[in-house]
Amino acid sequence: MKSVKESVTETKIFEKLKNYPKCKELVKYLFNDVELQEMQDYANNVSIKRLGFNDHGPVHMRQVAINSIKMLKILNEAQIPTSLEQEEIGTFEDSLCAVVIASLMHDLGMMVGRQGHEEMSVMLALPLIDKTLNNIFPDDIHKRVVIKSLAIEAIIGHMSSRKIHSIEAGILLIADGCDMTKGRARIPMALNTTPKVGDIHKYSANAITKVNIQHGETKPIKIDVEMSAEVGFFQIEEVLLTKVNSSPAKQFIELYAGVTGEEKKRYL
Asked: What is 4-266's CATH number?
């Protein structure tokens, strides 16, 4: 059964896609896929209970979808084409479909473990991607191939460990890094009270109170991060900034971060 937070996040996603009927149909199909839901839930179980990591489950994957959609729409409003549009091989809505699929499946590999989970995510996602695209685009093999390929690039590239080349995959990479608020660390911090190496990720995430994605001042997209304590800068510098620096979409990003009530630091 889905949590209240999952349902609320799904409603937000549908609202953001109201002008993109095919992508909205695809998202509805994915949200009703019982197997995908079970896989997301199990990935989260492994991440939090077995490994003591932050949330990598259904809420996280939905939030990454929201972040990705926001950023792609801002680029679209700024008349900056996606890679599919630049190459005249697909539409903006095709790019949205690929990024949403990748968002909802990028951490499925956590079902197996952390090491190499992006490659495992691709392996586990492939049957789901094929099933979904065959259902949504039954008579358009071109769209199925293009969207599937782009989604795979985004999934396998979301850890900055592999070179990616499309704007769409670059947006997913940044969108993943933007989901770092204290909600992701709440359960693991409650369950794991014995100090161990790696706890800095939980404590730094717990200090992040808000991540705003909006129109920028000198670049199209502004990411503005608020935190309650300076330990949150670890999350910015070791996680988010690493992902932005590896992203083909870096050129479109402004990045600010700071403790609430103090002057923000501009990174990009």
From this structure: 1.10.1300
Q: What is the pLDDT of residues 176-228, one digit of tens each?
A: 999 988 654 455 545 555 555 556 767 788 899 999 999 999 999 999 999 99
State how far the Cα of 185 lies from the Cα of 202, in Å rounded to an integer: 5
Question: Model confidence over 60-118: pLDDT tens digits?
Answer: 999 999 999 999 999 999 999 999 999 999 999 999 999 999 999 999 999 999 999 99
pTM: 0.92
Residue boundaries of the structural domains of the chain? 4-266
